[in-house]
């Protein structure tokens, strides 16, 4: 390998696979020759929360990133290996002036590798520039004032892509699919999803645009039902997770659209009033995105430990395998739970309310500890974002100590959100013959009615694993007992201090 003599700027792409609103790329391109680096890291790919589908989506994004870099005379350089080893290879091939990347709030295995990179940079006297791409604050001292700081950070407009990128003469391996990585000794997990949505920066911007100008009009009302949510939600989560879109780009595009609608209204044009409400709900959720990520940033241990420590042993650490498998495969005997789980497994996405209901059912009805399925569930989400994932899992399992228990009744969720039963029938074809009257509670059909529709409970479709009302009573009693523990109040108060949104005071939360 020929050694490049002039010192190069290494831009390490991670969860920021775009050229627009990419401060590290822009600054590096202004500073000199660039190695635009993506590393397939075995330690991450072989982690239990990584899925073959994640690799497919990463590669779709890398394909577009490569074209976008090429269009600016730049070049994508991919390598396989642990990042510090790859950086060491590069250092043997060229002098490195600086390393650039975005700060990442992430799972512990990636935090550990970031620590290695920091050590490596220090030992070679290479500066590592690491700006944030979200509203998450590193080394946050207090949650007081966090929301204000978020608004301030988000106010600066997204930066433009560099117009030209001078590539360093460094070779790469190209975009590597699962087979190519396996051939290089990386154990790529299987692919959990049947359906594939195109990826990449252009697709991300098209998805956002179609939401802001067309699909999003009824978002506020339609986001909760899985019948409507697939179209009515923005569907940008996967793009935010891979960084094919930045949170700032989404927020500014929404604010721009809001201003346009307000101007139209001021000009006397008819504007559907649902638009402004929907955009405001959407923007609040972009705020939540960072609010939840901040929790993992402040306390990485919540990937594996209960936010409120007295709940550590509330549930059995060893899962009841029969219950867990029934839940994972969508055979619990509760049609709405099974339909949502099967839809999630096919698409790699389901809307927020249904994610919450799935976890609520596992945590309260089946009394499963969130840690027995957290990594598996991460694999099912193509938008897996560790900061949101672990915080939400704990919130929906009741282990934060500061949120009221949100226990969903999956039968009434079905009746309210899928009243005709169309979604349920589509995903639970065993029940396709049932009319709306029975679709959400097939176990209540008398034998004669079962015979009439040709659906025998226990043969064609399982009876529910547990009685919902009884399971909820039991769960609440267990929580009440845990809260009576002398250390509980102090622990919950500490959680509030560290993680609580200041929208509600500690006193209002009863802490
Ligand atoms: C158990 C559980 C696990 C979850 N895991 C993830 C995850 O790994 N990655 C992820 O992006 N979201 C996660 N969520 C939050 C939420 O379900 C998704 O953000 C949302 O469904 C993504 O679809 P969308 O982009 O169309 O969302 P929209 O409703 O259009 O919202 C726009 C964006 O706002 C943010 N957002 C929306 N709702 C929430 C929320 N409740 N908390 C935090 N941010 C939110 C997301 O970035 C989302 O992309 C999880 C929720 C639960 C209950």
Uncertain stretches:
none
| CATH level 4 superfamily of the largest domain | DNA Cyclobutane Dipyrimidine Photolyase, subunit A, domain 3
State the shape. globular
Number of separate strands:
5
Radius of gyration, whole Å: 24 Å
Helicity, as a percent range: 40-55%
- In terms of DSSP E residues, the strand content is 5-15%
Average pLDDT taken over every residue:
95
The distinct ligands, each listed once, are: flavin-adenine dinucleotide
Specify the structural class.
Answer: alpha/beta
Instruction: Quickly give the CATH architecture of the largest domain.
Output: Orthogonal Bundle
Number of domains: 3
The DSSP helix count reads: 24
CATH class of the largest domain: Mainly Alpha
Through-space gap between termini: 63 Å
Task: Kindly describe this structure.
The protein is α/β, with parallel strands linked by helices and 511 residues long. Helix content is 50%, strand content 6%. The chain has 24 helices and five strands. Strand 4, helix 5 and strand 5 form a beta-alpha-beta unit. Helix 13 crosses helix 18. The chain is globular and about 85 Å long. The termini are far apart. The mean pLDDT is 95. Bound molecules: flavin-adenine dinucleotide (FAD). The site of flavin-adenine dinucleotide has 28 residues, from helix 11, helix 13, helix 16 and helix 18.
Layout of secondary structure:
Elements: E1 4-13, H1 23-31, E2 34-40, H2 42-45, H3 52-70, E3 76-80, H4 83-93, E4 94-100, H5 108-123, E5 128-129, H6 146-155, H7 178-183, H8 201-213, H9 219-222, H10 229-232, H11 237-242, H12 247-266, H13 273-298, H14 321-329, H15 335-347, H16 352-365, H17 374-380, H18 386-397, H19 410-417, H20 422-427, H21 436-439, H22 447-453, H23 468-483, H24 488-499
Parallel strand pairs: 1-2, 1-4, 2-3, 4-5
């Amino acid at each position: 390998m020929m050694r490049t003599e002039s010192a190069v700027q290494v831009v390490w792409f991670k969860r920021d696979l775009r050229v627009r609103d990419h401060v590290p790329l822009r600054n590096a391109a202004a500073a000199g020759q660039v190695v635009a680096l993506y590393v397939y890291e075995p330690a991450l790919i072989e982690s239990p929360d990584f899925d073959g589908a994640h690799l497919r989506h990463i590669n779709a994004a890398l394909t577009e990133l490569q074209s976008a870099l090429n269009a600016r005379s730049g070049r994508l350089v991919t390598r396989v290996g642990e990042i510090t080893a790859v950086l060491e290879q590069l250092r043997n091939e060229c002098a490195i002036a600086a390393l650039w990347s975005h700060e990442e709030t992430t799972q512990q295995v990636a935090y550990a590798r970031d620590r290695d990179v920091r050590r490596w940079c220090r030992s070679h006297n290479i500066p590592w520039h690491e700006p944030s791409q979200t509203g998450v604050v590193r080394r946050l001292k207090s949650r007081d004032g966090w929301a204000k700081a978020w608004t301030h950070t988000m106010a600066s407009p997204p930066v433009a892509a560099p117009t030209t990128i001078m590539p360093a003469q460094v070779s790469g391996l190209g975009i590597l699919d699962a087979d190519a990585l396996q051939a290089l000794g990386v154990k790529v997990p299987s692919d959990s999803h049947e359906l594939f949505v195109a990826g990449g920066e252009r697709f991300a911007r098209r998805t956002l645009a179609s939401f802001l100008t067309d699909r999003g009009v009824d978002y506020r009302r339609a986001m909760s039902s899985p019948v409507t949510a697939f179209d009515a939600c923005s569907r940008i989560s996967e793009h935010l997770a891979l960084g094919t879109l930045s949170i700032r780009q989404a927020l500014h595009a929404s604010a721009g659209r809001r201003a346009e609608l307000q101007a139209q209204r001021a000009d006397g044009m008819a504007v559907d009033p649902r638009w402004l409400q929907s955009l405001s709900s959407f923007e609040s959720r972009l705020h939540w995105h960072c609010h939840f990520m901040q929790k993992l940033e402040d306390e990485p241990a919540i990937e594996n430990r209960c936010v409120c420590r007295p709940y550590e042993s509330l549930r059995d650490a060893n899962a009841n395998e029969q219950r867990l498998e029934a839940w994972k495969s969508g055979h619990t005997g509760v049609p709405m739970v099974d339909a949502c789980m099967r839809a999630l497994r096919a698409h790699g996405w389901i809307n927020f309310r249904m994610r919450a209901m799935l976890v609520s059912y596992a945590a309260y009805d089946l009394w499963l500890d969130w840690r027995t399925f957290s990594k598996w569930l991460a694999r099912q989400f193509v938008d897996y974002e560790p900061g949101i994932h672990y915080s939400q899992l704990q919130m929906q399992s009741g282990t934060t100590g500061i949120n009221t228990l949100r226990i969903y009744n999956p039968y009434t969720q079905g009746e309210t959100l899928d009243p005709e039963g169309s979604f349920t029938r589509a995903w639970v074809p065993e029940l396709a013959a049932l009319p709306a009257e029975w679709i959400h509670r097939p176990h209540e059909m008398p034998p004669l009615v079962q015979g009439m529709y040709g659906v025998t409970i226990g043969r064609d479709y399982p009876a529910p694993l547990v009685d919902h009302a009884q399971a909820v009573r039991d769960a609440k009693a267990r929580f009440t007992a845990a809260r009576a523990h002398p250390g509980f109040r102090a622990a919950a108060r500490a959680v509030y201090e560290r993680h609580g949104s200041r929208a509600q005071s500690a006193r209002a939360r009863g802490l």
